Amino acid sequence: MHEWALAEAVITTAQNIAKKEGLKQVTEVFVKIGELQQVERPIFRFAIQQMKPANFQKAKFHISTAKTNLKCRVCGNTWQFKKAKLDKETAEAIHFVPEVVHAYIKCPKCGSPDFEIIQGRGVWLETIRGEK
Amino acid sequence: MADPRISVITGRLKSIRRILAVSSGKGGVGKSLVATTLALSLANRGCKVGLLDLDFTSPSTHIILGIKDVQPTEEKGLIPPEVEGLEYMSLVYYVGDNPTPLRGVDTSNALIELLAVTLWGNLDYLVIDMPPGIGDAILDLIRLIPQGEFLIVTTSSQLAFETVKKQICLLQELKVPIVGIVENMKMTKAKDVQRQTEELGVKFLAEIPFDSTVEAAIGDSQRLLGTKLAKNVGEVAQAV
């Protein structure tokens, strides 16, 4: 259910941008969700529908997923995060705070926990469109 | 591309009257003990208090409190569990005893995430146990929580106080409020730290003599509250 907190953050940020750009009606919102955070899309989408303000009523939310690419800082190996390889408790911990991935995952090539999350960490607002 | 989390942080903290970041330029000066004991002392005085451990790579407030088998409740965000009368939040809930090596960008992201999704209740005080130094965490705190006030811990050692002076200089330049300085683990009657603190225009809150009984009280907050350390920190609680 912490998808509600993330959805609130998306709505608040989109509303701030709409105000700044003078949009009276927002028609489209593009959101990217990184696989690492394992956001439950139906809950996230439902939360957005419940919280969206009047000037977002006609807005279509485009929610896409970004693969999580990790890169080892020690050996340069790159690989993709796979939730399926984690036990439930670990997956849930990473869901709440994605950075804790460093406590559970190591480079499959050299075993280092010193890796970079190149993309696909959490929730990002890509852009919004609307009518002035 | 915008990080939506930043936009909700101010709202998440609006029900908190004062935010005290217990901090130091140097590690090993007793920040976590002072922060935890201060939070417990304030709660003992009838205040509603939260404790947030931001020392992500070396957390220890959970050990001082002796927490076991508690987790935040998930309800449209994360609600910190009540531990020893405190609303308590730490990354430890999600990493357990695993070492968690984090670089600066990861520290920032974890801090933003916790601030964005934690739903604090109505608090008189949120005490934050900061990591040592003037790196990412302190800069993020200043950026994200401009209403935060710093309580600085030092020891009598010149090695500690020299780093604290740099921290004070940074905070003063950025016009960040400093509640005052606590001189911890004091073993002499020298007043050098107090004198230098006052010369810097910062309030000297208290000196806390080295208390050898504290180690045995770690993990037992009631016993901790009975130590001389707690009595001295109680004076700090009174002063803030």
What would you give as the CATH superfamily of chain B? P-loop containing nucleotide triphosphate hydrolases
Topology of chain A as a string of helices (H) and strands (E): HEHEEEHHEE
Major sheet characteristics of chain A:
3 strands, mixed
Overall pLDDT of chain A: 94
**So what's the overall shape of chain A?**
elongated
Tell how many strands the DSSP assignment of chain A holds: 6
Q: How many domains is the backbone of chain B divided into?
A: 1
Strand percent estimate of chain B: 15-25%
> What is the first-to-last residue Cα distance of chain A?
34 Å
Q: Widest sheet of chain B: strand order?
A: 5-6-2-7-1-8-9-10
The chain-level structural class of chain B is: alpha/beta
**What is the CATH topology of chain B?**
Rossmann fold
Strand content of chain A: 25-35%
Biggest interchain interface, per-side counts: A-B, 34 and 35 residues
Number of strands of chain B: 10
Look at the structure and give the CATH class of chain B: Alpha Beta
The unreliable regions of chain A are none
- Gyration radius of chain B, rounded: 17 Å
- Tell me the CATH topology of chain A: hypothetical protein PF0899 fold
CATH architecture title of chain B: 3-Layer(aba) Sandwich
